[in-house]
Design a protein that fits this description.
Distance between the termini: 53 Å
Structural class: mainly beta
Radius of gyration: 23 Å
Number of strands: 32
Strand content: 35-45%
Helix content: under 10%
Length: 403
């Protein structure tokens, strides 16, 4: 082909790419129409129940027993003032407050460390609100199982809307298969997940912070952090599963006999991934040679999986984004506006054609970039420098597998 004709084709391709990039910044990708119809998720407006480390020193009106017990009026020091009745709307465990709460109520948790579990079931709409990640800390009270509903430390029933914010979940010292086994919808905002693992080194290489797999689950995870996770930060699994994973930080365990994936999107889930920092996912499972990745997308467990991955920093991973499990995979993935520098491979695909144009790879040299992709990955044109544009989203009043 004559050189001038090649240049004309390249210019046309670049103009088309810039138009597509602008379209992505101003609207959701065409294959994710649900975001055009998404209404803001609102705080619940029911009764507030309080969980704190109440003692007799907090009692303002004693029922006469001289010790803290049901019926005493306690001061809500951690909650900005006011009083509540111990055993009615104030409790010294989170599980007791959740049991007392009804549909659309709020459980507000004070500062401190609370040991809860081994399992807490949430069967009605609820807001679970702490005083801040690292300030309100929930520790596991026992091991989960490796099968069935017992896998979940927190078990969220089908159809339930759960909003969790401003707290830490720490599984240290326990075997946790899934911190949240979630069949409902809702949000996680400003939440820290630490040490969620079930024999992370060696089989079963387990541990997932949030497993979303309901028949109609819409789960957004925002402004949250994940560290020392056994295997997966958030597993989005199933054709009825949608959600946004945005502005989070996932830090893998580095090199070793284990696996790390900030996200595992599969079995027909439809997910937007934006504004995150994902790094240090370098483990290799000695048992079968499986490798880690920042984000894993596949249709191995079911067709229809889609992911729009944009404006993230994915660096220092074995693979930034791994698409597909085998040669029959049909995942639909768009990757744009990301920093993909410093990975072993920036993007890999076992079969699907992946649009990975408009990313920064740590270099402008196309021959070098070609060595950073595996499979059918269209990476041209590329960004010429690190430019991760800010992401504008519709405001939301609250944060809102396989199984």
């Amino acid at each position: 082909m004559p050189r001038k004709q090649k240049k004309r084709i390249l210019r046309a391709k670049r103009r088309d790419w810039y138009k597509r990039l602008l379209d992505r910044r101003n609207a959701v990708s065409a294959h994710r129409p649900r975001f055009e119809e998404l209404e803001p998720k609102m705080l619940l407006s029911g009764t507030t129940f309080y969980a704190d480390d109440f003692t007799f020193a907090d009692v303002t009106v004693d029922n006469g027993s001289g010790v803290l017990d049901a019926g005493d009026v306690v001061a809500l020091t951690d909650f900005g003032g006011g009083t509540a009745v111990f055993g009615t709307d104030a409790f010294d465990t989170i599980s007791a407050a959740i049991s007392a709460a009804g549909a659309d109520d709020i459980v507000s948790v004070g500062a401190g460390t609370f040991v809860e579990g081994p399992q807490i079931q949430i069967s009605s709409n609820l807001d679970l609100v702490g005083q801040g990640a690292g300030v309100t800390i929930i520790e596991a009270g026992g091991n989960t199982t490796t099968s069935g509903e017992g896998r979940g430390w927190f078990l969220v029933d089908e159809g339930v809307n759960l909003n969790v914010s401003n707290m830490t979940f720490d599984g240290a010292g326990n075997l946790i298969w899934q911190a949240f086994r979630h069949r409902g919808s809702g949000t996680f905002d400003s939440v820290a997940f630490n040490d969620i693992a079930y024999q992370a080194s060696g089989s079963p290489y387990g541990g997932t912070a949030i497993a979303a797999f309901g028949s109609a689950s819409d789960i957004d995870v925002t402004n949250s952090s994940f560290s020392d996770i056994g295997r997966v930060g958030v597993l989005y699994f199933g054709s009825g599963v949608t959600g946004t994973f945005a502005d989070n930080t996932y830090t893998g365990k580095g090199a070793g006999d284990w696996l790390d994936y900030a996200l595992d999107i599969s079995a027909g889930a439809n997910i937007e991934v934006s504004g995150n920092t994902i790094s240090n996912n370098l483990g290799v499972a000695i048992s079968d040679g499986s490798t880690s990745a920042g984000v894993l997308v596949s249709t191995f467990f079911g067709a229809g999986t889609t992911a729009d991955i944009h404006n993230n920093t994915l660096t220092g991973n074995t693979t930034g984004v791994a698409v597909g499990f085998d040669g029959s995979d049909t995942s639909s993935v768009t990757i744009s506006g990301n920093d993909l520098s410093g990975n072993g491979n920036g993007v890999s695909s076992t079969a699907p054609t992946v649009d990975a144009s408009g990313n920064w790879w740590g270099t402008n040299d196309e021959a070098t970039i070609a060595g950073l992709v595996v499979g059918d990955v269209d990476f041209s044109p590329t960004l010429t420098a690190v430019r991760i544009p800010a992401v504008t989203r519709a405001s939301k009043a609250t944060p809102r597998c396989c199984a």
